[in-house]
Design goal:
By secondary structure, the protein is α+β, with helices and mostly antiparallel strands. The protein has nine helices and eleven strands. The two termini are 44 Å apart.
């Protein structure tokens, strides 16, 4: 058995009551760390990225809030004059927190680890710097499908879901996309500080916005309340759409920000502070034990309208690209199922083709930018086997020639990208070590 933590009772008067059978280390000489591959297989870390990037908490604030368990490198050349870390505020802020630096900590981590500004997107195959047209088109359709929630297999043009048990009206994928496009214009999910306001089927959640929509045939109209049936016909129904966050922007340990349709009001409860604290504590424990993903809102009854993941990246160009893709998908589905004259249908198809080509060119240009301005992984020395130890947290982050094998998420970085970010990093650490930077005064929130 590996003793990876010090015993809190060992140095207290009377010592540890468990003696030699204690599960914790009685002194630093008993501390042991499982090999890198073992912890990877146990799901405790990702050996492909573990301690191969600099810790930008330490870079920006001089210290890291995670401490010795941080999965990134604490490059000794970037340590600051402050010994205590600046607090992050992308999760509910602790009372009387003296200082704060970043309201988008998880988003920054996701941008560091991700293949694109769209949180959670992982290419299904290797991206190369010099892809041919066929590979580039495949990469685009891969990205297109992710932005439109097509991976769940429920977005076919013929997909139908009942609005409610009492209504004969069905909601289609065109309706879902139309509602999502109307709600994303508020950009509520693009940037926020996570402070839970409700319990959503027992889980702490932040309700970003609630909107009502009237579905009348193929059309979707925004309305101010849930009385839309009074103004619609027999084919009309009201949809209550709620945009809900389960954690900070970009936090990969929770469900992504999604739009939920016609959820039973009993399932979303505005809670008191005491209830919220209790649930938040339980949520934290569930995250650590990896129990989170199988609980709560995931147990919604079968046949209900599936939620729609918002996909609102902080980067405005990427945000507009996702918006354009979702609008293209909606119009393509709408034209497919509509009955229009052949001449109008031909014009519409030509227009869709031109829009699709524009989106493809925008994706190719932005992907080139994403691949160029990302921090490459620090190369490892030697082959990883069952005896390879966990890399030291105090290692220096260095950027050398490009790794000939697949980089993070199977993506190969162009050599120019490695040189560009490498020069930036070496210039930064050189300035840090030169003494040219002046000691700063009291830290301010940035």
């Amino acid at each position: 058995k590996f003793k990876v933590e010090l015993c809190h009772n060992f140095e207290k008067p009377g010592g540890c009551p468990f003696g030699s059978s204690c599960n914790y280390a009685h002194g630093t000489h008993e501390l042991r760390t499982k090999p890198l591959l073992t912890q990877h297989l146990e799901g405790k870390l990702d050996l492909n990225s573990y301690r191969r990037h600099p810790c930008f908490d330490q870079v920006s604030g001089g210290a890291c809030s995670i401490g010795p368990d941080c999965p990134c490198l604490h490059d000794p050349r970037t340590g600051g004059q402050f010994k205590t870390p600046l607090r992050q505020t992308d999760y509910q802020r602790p009372k009387n927190a003296p200082e704060e630096v970043s309201k988008m900590h998880q988003a920054q981590q996701a941008a560091l680890q991700g293949a694109s500004p769209v949180y959670g997107f992982v290419p299904s195959f290797v991206w190369n710097a010099c892809d041919d047209d066929e590979s580039s088109q495949a990469a685009f359709f891969d990205f297109y499908g992710y932005c439109c929630n097509m991976a769940d297999g429920l977005t076919d043009k013929a997909a139908l879901w009942p609005v409610s048990l009492r209504s004969p009206v069905n909601i289609t994928e065109v309706h879902r996309l139309s509602i999502a496009l109307k709600m994303r214009m508020a950009r509520k999910a693009q940037s926020f500080v996570f402070k839970p306001t409700h319990l959503f089927f027992g889980e702490p959640a932040l309700l970003l916005q609630t909107r009502y929509f009237l579905i009348d045939g193929p059309e979707v109209f925004s309305i101010s309340d849930d009385l839309g049936e009074l103004y619609g016909g027999s084919n009309a129904a009201v949809i209550c759409a709620r945009e809900i966050a389960f954690g900070p922007v970009g936090d990969a340990t929770v469900r992504p920000v999604s739009i939920w349709f016609n959820v039973d009001d009993k399932g979303i409860i505005e809670c008191s502070t005491n209830e919220l604290r209790k649930k938040a504590y339980q949520l934290w424990n569930d995250r650590r034990s990896r129990k989170f993903s199988g609980r709560g809102a995931s147990s919604l009854v079968e046949g209900s309208i599936p939620p729609f993941v918002s996909h609102q990246p902080a980067d405005d160009a990427a945000f507009d690209l996702v918006t354009g893709i979702q609008a293209h998908r909606r119009d393509a589905l709408r034209d497919t199922i509509s009955s229009m004259s052949p001449s109008i249908a031909y014009d519409e198809l030509q227009s869709l083709d031109r829009r699709g080509q524009g989106l493809y060119e925008s994706f190719i240009g932005q992907r080139r930018h994403w691949m160029t301005w990302q921090w490459p992984l620090k190369q490892r020395s030697g082959k990883i086997d069952e005896t390879t130890p966990v890399p030291s947290i105090d290692g220096a982050y260095t950027v050398s020639s490009v790794d000939p094998s697949a980089n993070r998420h199977g993506k190969v970085m162009p050599e120019r990208a490695s040189l560009t970010t490498g020069h930036l990093w070496e210039s930064f650490v050189s300035a840090m070590g030169s003494g040219d930077h002046r000691p700063c005064g009291p830290r301010l929130d940035t």
